[in-house]
Design a protein that fits this description.
Layout: H1 3-27, H2 35-56, H3 66-88, H4 95-104, H5 113-121, H6 124-132, H7 136-152, H8 159-168, H9 173-186, H10 193-199, H11 201-220, H12 223-226, H13 230-255, H14 259-268, H15 276-284, H16 288-314
Helix pairs in contact: 1-5, 1-11, 2-9, 2-11, 3-4, 3-13, 4-13, 4-15, 4-16, 5-6, 5-14, 6-14, 7-8, 7-15, 13-14, 13-16, 15-16
Length: 317
């Protein structure tokens, strides 16, 4: 199976899994409360292994170390902007983190960003894309998880205690896997590519991880529950598709990026909400309906407007 065929296949698996989760909830086969179980299983059982192997196989090219820092700069700025806008709109305690997380983290990995980068920029873009998102697990588990703990905890714990609890949480296991993979990559430990390809381990982990993640997302989808949040989601899309690209354009100009590196960063700046923007509210019980609405509306805008009309122009194709 060729690279493009693989990614299209994985995208179809995600779509079918989402539809199954949605129909399973509608038919009463699986309750919405089970969504957290599916997402936790995906994080602990499969994101952990995938993160380990994906980072281990990377060849960190000199000069590309700034890409993960650019990613952090964009996520952190949008997170701050998300909290500021949530405050301006007078959102409740459980709505605020769901809105801010939706604004800050984007669908950059194999579930969307990888497929789009490959299709528009070619296979070389995938290597840069993996390096770019290298910082995402660290930000998610060391910053976003503690913030979610803060908003759902009654005890008023301090920042250091929140981080300590987050890194001790079983759901943070991918953080340790990515760290271990990075150590192996930097020390040039031999990657067992032949063995893994022979047993198709990565493909199996990828398929099962996508199925669990997107079935969990499908279980949270309720078209009726979206209506009260449509205005907030449209505002969030303004941060996602206007502020993020403008910020990225400024960073690329300041850093002097050119060629495929610049094109990739601008492309990734236009991605819609991340899968984790639903996972975190589901796991920590912030406003899941708002998170779900953000995810669906941002993907609808992306596929209807951004991908066919804006992206080719923005990256100079």
């Amino acid at each position: 199976m060729g690279t493009q065929t693989q990614i299209v296949f994985f995208s179809l698996v995600a779509l079918v899994s989402t539809l199954f989760g949605y129909l399973a909830r509608r038919q009463g086969w699986i309750s919405t409360e089970r969504a957290g179980w599916f997402m936790k299983a995906a994080i602990v059982g499969f994101d952990t292994s995938l993160g380990f192997f994906a980072v281990w196989r990377l060849h960190i090219i000199p000069g590309t170390w700034r890409l993960p820092l650019v990613n952090v700069a964009v996520i952190a700025t949008l997170l701050a902007a998300g909290f500021a806008v949530a405050r301006l709109l007078k959102m409740g305690r459980l709505q605020t983190p769901s809105f801010a997380f939706g604004a800050s983290i984007s669908n950059l990995s194999y579930t969307l960003g990888g497929f789009v980068a490959l299709s528009l920029l070619g296979p070389d873009a995938l290597g840069y894309q993996f390096i770019y998102i290298l910082s995402s697990p660290f930000f998610i588990f060391l910053v976003l998880f503690p913030i979610a703990h803060h908003y759902t905890s009654e005890s008023g714990l301090g920042p250091l205690e929140l981080v300590r609890r987050s890194v001790a949480d079983l759901r943070s296991l991918p953080l340790y896997a990515v760290t271990a993979g990075l150590a192996l990559s930097l020390t040039k430990a031999p990657y067992p590519a032949e063995t893994l390809e022979r047993v198709h381990l990565i493909d199996v982990l990828l398929v099962v991880g996508i199925v669990l993640s997107y079935v969990g997302i499908g279980l949270t989808i309720s078209l009726r529950a979206m209506r009260p949040y449509l205005v907030q989601s449209v505002v969030m899309c303004g941060l996602k598709f206007a502020v993020a690209p403008l910020l990225m354009f400024g960073l690329m100009s300041a850093l002097g990026y050119t060629g495929i590196g610049r094109q990739l960063c601008l492309l990734l700046a236009f991605m819609p909400c991340a899968v984790y923007s639903i996972m975190i509210p589901t796991l920590f019980r912030t406003d899941r309906d708002l998170a779900m609405t953000n995810f669906i509306v941002s993907h609808a805008v992306f596929f209807a407007v951004i991908l066919p009309f804006v992206l080719p122009w923005a990256i100079g194709l």
